[in-house]
Amino acid sequence: MSGKRRLAAALLCLAALAAPAGAESPASLKARRAAAAAALKAHQQQEAAAMLHRKAVAAKAAALAAQQARAAAALRGLEEQTAADAAQLAQLFAQRDAAARRLDAAQAGLERLLPVIQRLAAAPGTTLLAAPLSPREAVAGIAILQGLAGELAARAAEVKTESAQLALAIAAAQTAQERLTAAVAAQQAAEAKLAAQIGLARADEQQAADRAVAEAA
User: What is the C-alpha separation between 10 and 38, in angstroms, rounded?
Assistant: First the structure.
């Protein structure tokens, strides 16, 4: 029997009890009154329980929705951080490539000067005599060559140090990016789980509403 029908039966019973008792015995009248009161109390308890259930379901759905909003915000933050880290990593790769080009240029310059420097070191007199220069110009040229070679060597060493630092920064950035990618995947899984829970809560809420309508019919 639906809630409305039970309530109607209880009210009819109470109305009958309010009518003159006639030849009904006191015990029978007392029993009918007790039955009517019990039916009314049961209806009230059922209505109260249904109300509490609806409130609990609604509160759960609201809490899950708020949790989903926070999870979505966290996911957006992780995705933005991932994009920023990807841009930083791309910049580090560009710096590494530029450093490699500078190192290649410095090493190429050294390679061009190396044969002359080696000849000067092995046979300075013969090398100077073979050059169409005055002795003063030859000595000045040697000094320039040695200075240029030293500058190129120092530049190559600086670039190598920079390249090593960039390699460390790239490795750290790649590790951070891997962690962020894993965090994004975990957050997406958590958000999907929350969405499923919200779907179940909404289905429960709809079922409770359907039951309330059916009982009121």
Answer: 9
Distance CA 118, CA 132 (A): 19
CB burial of residue 84 (10 Å; 0-12, 13-18, 19+): exposed
**164, two tokens:** 């090593």
Task: Find out whether 117 and 145 touch, Cβ atoms under 8 Å.
Answer: yes
Buried b (16+ CB within 10 A) or exposed e, 7-21: bebbeebeeebeeee
Cα 177 to chain centroid distance, Å, stands at 12
Q: What is the pTM of this model?
A: 0.51
As a whole number of angstroms, the distance between CA 183 and CA 189 comes to 10
The span from the CA of 92 to the CA of 80, in Å, is 18
In whole angstroms, how far apart are CA 126 and each of 46, 112, 122?
A: 116, 20, 9
- Side chain identity, residue 63: A
Q: Are 152 and 116 in contact (CB under 8 A)?
A: no
pLDDT of amino acid 213: 62
Three-state DSSP class for 19?
coil
What does the block give as tokens for 104?
Answer: 């290649």
- Alpha carbon distance 182, 156 (integer Å): 39
Range picked from 44-48, 79-83, 210-214 for highest mean pLDDT:
79-83
